[in-house]
Amino acid sequence: MPETEIRTVFSGYPDIIYGFTDISYCSYRESYRSALVLAVPYGEQLTPDDYTEERFEQGIQTAKGRLETVVAEIEQVLQKHHVKYWIPPVAQENETELRALFSFKTAAAHAGIGWFGKNDVIITEKYGPRVRLSAILIDEVFTYGRPVTTGRCPDDCTKCVDICPCKALKNQQWSIEKDRSEIIDYQKCNRMRSAFIKKLGRKNACGLCMAVCPFGRHEQES
Ligand code: SF4
Ligand code: SF4
Q1: Does pLDDT of 93 surpass 70?
Q2: 130 lines ligand 2 (CB under 6 A)
Q3: Cβ-count burial of 145 within 10 angstroms (0-12 exposed, 13-18 middle, 19+ buried)?
Q4: Nearest ligand atom owner, CA of 154
Q5: CA nearest 211: which of 61, 62, 41, 50?
Q6: Average pLDDT over all residues of the chain
Q7: 222 lies in some domain
Q8: Residue in 46, 202, 208 to alter for ligand 1 test, most ligand atoms within 8 A of Cβ
Q9: Residue 142, domain member (yes or no)
Q10: How many domains does the chain have?
Q11: In this structure, is residue 125 part of a structural domain?
């Protein structure tokens, strides 16, 4: 069983949130029994006071580098135990559906890492939405987290809804049976971010609806 060794890897990264979930809820259940979900805090935990798109993008890149390091260590464990695994790509399949092959966010909710905020981003108690997610599908059984099935955003909080420059968010509390389209007009969000490709050579990272979230803000106040 590689679980103990995987947990030992994470003990070297105490700030990284992780959890296991069975994936009987999705089509990959034919090939893998579980998913390990990782949530690495962004390099900078930005608020609206210090937010710039460049700093937000840099924070993403820092978290990405750390993710690659820890995932490589976990791969070594899995290979040593000859366990079948697959790391799904983070990228969306195409620009029409704008959906990834395997949703890290859905897996994070199933693993008990957090809930979908009204900004359609996973909200963790510790960092709010300021985390980068990844997942590894693993054909092995683990001790699973308790799934989060409903949103925990305060009913009267509309900070992310109000700050969105293209009014893509619909001020809807999430629950696990809801479709993404009930929370966000993803095409609107993507159109706004894609408009920057010519100027930046990439989409606008836009983390406004994350920087404004009050969850996790105590991290930099302490
Ligand atoms: S990422 Fe930006 S454009 Fe998209 S929903 Fe959040 S604030 Fe709006
Ligand atoms: S800003 Fe408020 S409504 Fe939006 S995700 Fe954070 S807690 Fe939820």
Answers
A1: no
A2: no
A3: middle
A4: 2
A5: 50
A6: 93
A7: no
A8: 208
A9: yes
A10: 1
A11: yes
Q: How far is CA 103 from CA 3, 18, 77, 92, 93, in A?
A: 22, 15, 24, 9, 11
Q: How far is the CA of 19 from the centre of ligand 2 (A)?
A: 23
Kindly tell me the burial class for residue 197, based on how many C-beta atoms sit within 10 Å of its own C-beta (0-12, 13-18, 19 or more).
Answer: exposed
Q: Nearest C-alpha to atom 2 of ligand 1 is from which residue?
A: 206
Cα–Cα distance between 117 and 169 in angstroms, integer?
10
Residue 206 lies in a domain: yes
The predicted-structure confidence for 166-213, as pLDDT tens digits, reads as follows 999 999 999 999 999 999 999 999 998 888 888 888 888 899 999 999
Per residue in 125-178, pLDDT (tens digit) is: 999 999 999 999 999 999 999 999 999 999 999 999 999 999 999 999 999 999
Global pTM reads 0.92
Range of the domain at 125: 3-217
Average pLDDT, integer, range 21-38? 96
Q: Which ligand approaches the C-alpha of residue 194 most closely?
A: 1
Nearest protein Cα to ligand 1, atom 3: 189
Least Cα distance to 170 among 194, 151, 148 occurs for 151
In the block, residue with structure tokens 């996973």: 122
Between 97 and 125, the higher pLDDT residue: 125
List, in sequence order, every beta strand (DSSP E) within the chain. 17-22, 34-41, 85-86, 115-116, 122-123, 131-138
Interval between CA 181 and ligand 2 midpoint (Å): 17
Q: d(Cα 105, Cα 37) in Å, to the nearest integer?
A: 9
For the residues 43-58, what does the mean pLDDT come to? Answer: 92
